[in-house]
C-alpha cells in the first residue's frame, strides 16, 4: 500500500509535518492515518469525509 501526504505538509513539525496520510489500495477502500503515529487507527466520520470532498 502506498501512503501519500499533501505537498503542503513539509518535512518537520515546524514546517507543518503534522498531517494525515491517505492510501487507496486495490480494494478501493480509503485508508487514513496520522503521520506522527502511523500504527494508530483513526476514526473518521461521514461529516469529515463530506468536508474533505467539498469543492474549494
From TrEMBL:
Top-rank taxon of the source lineage equals: Bacteria
Q: Which Pfam families did the record assign? A: DUF397
Residue limits of the DUF397 domain? 2-46
- Matching InterPro entries: DUF397
- Any idea what this protein is called? DUF397 domain-containing protein
Amino acid at each position: 500500500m502506498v501512503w501519500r501526504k499533501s505537498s503542503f505538509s513539509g518535512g518537520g513539525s515546524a514546517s507543518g509535518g503534522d498531517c494525515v496520510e491517505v492510501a487507496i489500495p486495490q480494494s478501493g477502500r480509503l485508508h487514513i492515518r496520522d503521520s506522527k503515529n502511523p500504527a494508530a487507527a483513526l476514526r473518521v466520520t461521514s461529516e469529515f469525509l463530506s468536508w474533505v470532498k467539498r469543492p474549494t
